[in-house]
Amino acid sequence: MRTDLGMGRGKIAAQVAHAAVSAVLQGPHGAVFEAWLQAGQPKVVLKVAGAAELAELCGHAVAAGLPVQVIHDAGRTQVAAGTATCCAIGPALPADVDPVTAVLSLL
Amino acid sequence: MRTDLGMGRGKIAAQVAHAAVSAVLQGPHGAVFEAWLQAGQPKVVLKVAGAAELAELCGHAVAAGLPVQVIHDAGRTQVAAGTATCCAIGPALPADVDPVTAVLSLL
Questions:
Q1: pTM
Q2: Quick check: keyword Hydrolase in the entry (chains A, B) (predicted)?
Q3: Which of A9, A72, A81, A99 has the most crowded Cβ, counting Cβ within 10 A?
Q4: Which of A106, A2, A88 has the alpha carbon at shortest distance from A41?
């Protein structure tokens, strides 16, 4: 999640929920997905400082072969239309995601 | 979303995402669901003061025939295991949800 857009906690929550739903609807639905559901669909919400760091993160995740969904806000409230606010990485195994995200801090 | 549990914005975002994913996976998948997806899967994040108000809200939503998913936290961080933190109402038509939620404020 970008922290430079001045979004309130409700707006942030909605963006993260968009990302999670997109990850579930558009990501792979094999054994990794089923294992993630069985584990209680764990999510870790991390922060990036801005658009450049978000883009860099997405690039690393794609290069690692991970499912990535970038969320662009419709712009009805708080941020300009089309702004990339956050991304979802996964569903995937922690051992595959952690090398990409370990540098980031919890939101 | 309950506001009485002292959860940070990242924790809140994860709970809302749990609720949204549960609503998508467990809710009805008919024309209303497809229309919601086509509209950009809109979400409105609202607040309740505590467990009693959350339970009352869920009761009203169930009585109105709406899909309701209550999220109970696994309790690994910040709140006690099994705590009901929030619920998802829908996917449903705004005309059906709004009478149940209109009394609540944005988070």
A1: 0.93
A2: yes
A3: A9
A4: A88
Structure tokens at B40: 């950009």
Residue recorded with tokens 């294992």: A35
Domains of chain B, earliest start first: 9-106 (3.40.1490.10)
First to last CA, chain A: 7
Interface predicted TM-score (ipTM) of this complex, two decimals? 0.90
What residue ranges of chain A have pLDDT lower than 70? none
- B59-90 pLDDT, tens digit per residue, is 999 999 999 999 998 877 788 888 999 999 99
CA distance B89 to B42: 12
For residue B29, the SS3 value is: coil
**Residue among A20, A22, A107 minimizing CB distance to B9:** A107
Nearest CB neighbour to B24, from listed A8, A24, A45: A24
